[in-house]
Amino acid sequence: MKHLPLNPQLFIENRKRFVKEIKPNSIAIFNSNDEVPSNADALYRFQQNTSLYWLCGIEQEDTMVILFPDNPDEKYREVLVLVRPVELKEKWDGRRLRANEATELSGIKTIVWLDSLDALLQKWVHAADTIYLNTNEHDRKSTGFYATRDYRFVQEMKEKYPLHNYERAAKILFRLRSVKTKYEVEVIEKAIDITDKTFRRLLQFIKPGVMEYEIEAEIMHEFLRNRAKGEAYGSIIASGDRARTLHYIFNNEEAKDGELILMDFGANYGGYAADLTRTVPVNGKFTKRQKEVYNACLHLHNYAKNLLKPGITLADYHEKVGDEATKVFIKIGLLKKADIKNEDKENRAYRKYLYHGISHHLGLDVHDLGTFAEPLKEGMVLTVEPGIYIEQEQTGIRIENNIWLTKNSNIDLMKNIPIEADEIERLMKPLSPKRKL
């Protein structure tokens, strides 16, 4: 791992929260993701299962967490399963965790090697009444079926132990992971600090003629030199009309004088994501119209941020932001009152210029687990990211910050990152010789 060791209390608290939610005499079993082959003898870079990571903080492949709080043998109420270090494999692929190192990272005292698990697991399962297993229940996951390790393990367990009661761990994780502990927010803040440094670097780097991929390279450079794992998601560096493509990731065109450039990027630190979007003038100076639309988007951003509090549902929240967007778009000449009078309530007029949601949950996944139907709760972390996309002006503007909900309000975790048009223009002016990056 590139990041400094995290406070193991983060994972200890998460396990405590989970076991409080399960039925008496239950065992819960979590698996790491697969190592996935690409071509020839190569593997894709390993990406840990975020739910397993949430419980233990281990990024290594072939890892399991087994929680059995009513196990008669207290030693085995919390178990971390690891692949046994093998000298030959380590010569090829690098060092694997030792038991004491894994305990230090996770707070789990009992370590079992994977090659000796079967007999122990059978004994534990026989003593349990209910088995909790995990699958991907994110509402926005691909609708196609892919037989991941989780799904294969479900099938294997049901074949071996057909008379047990089975429960969905994901249903519990969906609620728990959406509400962040203070330890988790501390890690998100570190990812945000790195993202802040990176954005400030870019403000001095961007100029007419720069290639989008050169900006992407600057992002990766700053992330890695600050101990980030890398990008939390594929960076979007979209100049000119390409900014209207929401998930533009080609990043292969020239940023030209007079254009705006939309940059949506965030660092991954300690497994947790930051998610920032800023739109800036390539030449360092907004035109009058660009600034008008930018300030309209910033108004929507601040309006939405003020609404985002415990008790509101995301459905109601998006409807209210849509009402305000309608007023703003009339004011800046995008809509007329007749457009509103004749609009389809299922596809409102403002959606011609703002065709995505305003907020999503953020955490270990950039689109993290969390409810859209139930009222928001204290402790959730969400994005606020309205945009304005104008085909006839070949312009796309989006402004995004990350917000932590408190008891009665919220805290903008990105409040220190430049956002006002005048501040962006000031910071894009060339540095004097005495002021170097």
Written account of the structure:
The protein is α+β, with helices and mostly antiparallel strands. It folds into two domains: 9-173, Creatine Amidinohydrolase, Chain A, domain 1, CATH 3.40.350; 182-428, Alpha-Beta Complex (Creatine Amidinohydrolase), CATH 3.90.230.10. Helices cover 35% and strands 16% of the residues. The protein contains 13 helices and 17 strands. It has helices at residues 9-19, 50-56, 87-93, 99-106, 117-127, 149-160, 169-178, 182-205, 212-225, 288-307, 314-331, 337-341, 421-428; strands at residues 26-31, 64-67, 78-82, 110-113, 130-133, 165-168, 230-231, 236-239, 260-265, 267-269, 272-273, 276-281, 381-384, 387-390, 395-398, 401-405, 410-412. It has a six-stranded mixed sheet with strand order 4-3-2-1-5-6, sandwiched between helices. A three-stranded antiparallel sheet has the order 7-10-11. Strands 8-9-12 form a three-stranded antiparallel sheet. Strand 5 (130-133), helix 6 and strand 6 (165-168) form a beta-alpha-beta unit. Helix 8 crosses helix 9. The relative contact order is 0.11.
CATH fold assignment of the largest domain: Creatine Amidinohydrolase
Mean residue pLDDT: 96
- Kindly name the structural category: alpha+beta
What's the CATH architecture name of the largest domain?
Alpha-Beta Complex
Q: What percentage of residues falls in helices of 4 or more residues?
A: 25-40%
Q: Could you tell me how far the N terminus lies from the C terminus, measured between alpha carbons in angstroms?
A: 27 Å
Helix count equals: 13
Stretches where pLDDT falls below 50 for ≥5 residues?
A: none
Number of domains: 2
Proportion of residues in extended strands: 15-25%
Return the string of H and E elements: HEHEEHHEHEHEHHHEEEEEEHHHEEEEEH
CATH superfamily heading of the largest domain: Creatinase/methionine aminopeptidase superfamily
- Sheet with the most strands? 6 strands, mixed
